[in-house]
UniProtKB/TrEMBL annotation:
The keyword DNA damage applies. The lineage of its organism: Bacteria, Bacillati, Bacillota, Clostridia, Eubacteriales. It comes from the Bacteria. One of its GO terms (molecular function) is deoxyribodipyrimidine photo-lyase activity. It comes from Proteiniclasticum ruminis. Its EC number is 4.1.99.3. Its cofactor is FAD. This is Deoxyribodipyrimidine photo-lyase.
Length: 459
């Protein structure tokens, strides 16, 4: 079932003749629980036309490095293999995604795409929506409840959006079946230069990209099947302690699904429907992270055009930080010193090192990590820019609504006012004593040190 609220016509062109139905896969890099792919399949069956699945692979995607490209291509190679088994053609073009989509749409009866929320993803679609010569339909599938259905404005906090989402959940949590279906194979020539998309090393070699951040496939390998392994391990080994231990950086109960959600390699709906049907705190905590806070982040980037800058901060938080902008700082670090984990704080250094080594940081430590950069840089604007840079460059789930919302939260976004203090004003403060009081934080540092030693021994 594909709810009508997920479907949006991006132009007003009536149905036209064509050689195939085109699915422009971009934000949702999977087949399972992909409403956009399912919609394209149904259109192919309805029109008795082949389905062609297209992906545009561009050089120098903003802030992406070799680490991100390898994770993504690992997943796309799995997509290609799965489509091949189903007799569906997968076409990868080495160019900006909208260019290939427009060219391929010239011979298409219908162009279907998924929905992305970042500025660049919206720009891709907006550049061609009035230029394609066939119906152009966007199907939203990377959230459980469609963003525009939840709210038409920027929400103030998780509490305000939670009520809206909880009310709508029953309407948008229907299981999906991928088949059976009858779609003919399209084997004719296409009006694009197809990329030879077979070998991971050769694909990456042919791309012009930042190779300064190395892949982390020994920790996280891309693809739907890998996401399912992490989900299985989470449900079998971690879920029973998730609510009580999820904030403890010394204990690993994280699902580790955020990189896969970022690249659309697994659906949040599939994860939700995999959770035990209990009334436990574990389920409530997981639903809050997976749906409420994640979709609050989607709402943030959709309605706040300055989501990646300090300009996104409003209300009391912006005012109080600027009032205290010139407060004296006990420590000041450069971006390079922070990037290289060269501060006086072993807990912060461990968090930054974990990010660099694994491409992922424990969620609670990410909050501490962000708060300290505000304290150790000359202005909140500089702190914001540095945090966006570090998160985008090293995190597999960087360049993501969740990442931008998480950084904004460190500056008081989606939070309430607290007792006033230097530098932070009324924005929530965190310190090392809190880590020591709540957790065995030394164990976390030792765990990260073991990661470093493992990296050193592997060369």
């Amino acid at each position: 079932m594909i709810e009508k609220e997920r479907i949006k016509h991006l132009n007003h062109i009536k149905e036209s003749e064509g050689d195939y139905v085109l699915y422009w896969m971009q934000a949702s890099q999977r087949l399972h629980y992909n409403h956009a792919f399912q919609y394209a399949l149904l259109e192919s069956e309805r029109l008795s036309l082949p389905l062609v699945v297209y992906f545009g692979l561009m050089d120098h995607f903003p802030d992406a490095a070799l680490r991100h490209y390898q994770f993504m291509v690992e997943g796309l190679l799995e997509v290609k293999s799965a489509l091949s088994k189903k007799g569906i053609r997968f076409v990868v073009v080495h160019n900006s995604p909208e260019i290939g989509a427009r060219k391929l749409s010239e011979n298409a009866a219908v162009l279907v795409t998924d929905r992305g929320y970042l500025r660049i993803e919206r720009d891709f679609r907006n550049r061609i929506k009035e230029k394609v010569s066939c119906p152009f339909i966007q199907v939203e599938t990377n959230v459980v409840v469609p963003v525009d259905t939840v709210s038409q404005k920027e929400e103030y906090a998780a509490a305000t959006i939670r009520r809206k989402i909880e009310r709508l959940l029953p309407e948008f949590t229907h299981p999906m079946e991928l088949g059976p279906y009858e779609v003919p194979m399209y084997s004719d020539a296409l009006p694009v230069e197809e990329m030879l998309f077979e070998n991971l090393a050769e694909i990456l070699h042919d791309l012009d990209l930042d190779r300064g951040v190395l892949p982390v496939s020994h920790y996280f390998r891309g693809g739907y099947s890998e996401a399912k392994k992490h989900l299985k391990k989470f449900l079998e080994e971690k879920y029973s302690n998730f609510a009580s231990l999820r904030n403890d950086p010394a204990v690993d109960v994280a699902s580790n699904l955020s990189p896969y959600l970022h690249f659309g390699q697994i659906s949040p709906l599939e994860i939700y429907l995999s959770l035990p049907l209990d009334l436990s705190e574990n389920r409530a905590s997981m639903v809050d992270e997976l749906i409420v806070r994640r979709e609050l982040a989607m709402n943030f980037v959709e309605h706040n055009p300055q989501y990646d800058t300090f300009g996104s901060i409003s209300s009391f938080a912006r005012d109080t930080l600027l009032i205290h902008k010139n407060d004296p700082r006990s420590y000041l670090y450069t971006k390079k010193e922070l990037e290289e984990s060269k501060t006086h704080d072993p807990y912060w250094n461990a968090a930054q090192s974990e990010l660099v080594l694994k491409g992922k940081m424990h969620g609670y430590m990410r909050m501490y990590w962000g708060k300290k950069v505000i304290e150790w840089t000359a202005s909140p604007e500089e702190a914001y820019d540095i945090l966006v840079y570090l998160n985008n460059r090293y995190s597999l789930d960087g360049r993501d609504p969740n990442g931008y919302a998480g950084i904004a939260w460190c500056f008081g976004k989606h939070d309430r006012a607290w007792k006033e203090r230097e530098i932070f004003g009324k924005v929530r403060y965190m310190n090392d004593k809190g880590l020591e009081r709540k957790f065995s934080i030394g164990t976390y540092v030792k765990n990260v040190d073991a990661l470093k030693q493992g990296e050193d021994s592997n060369g």
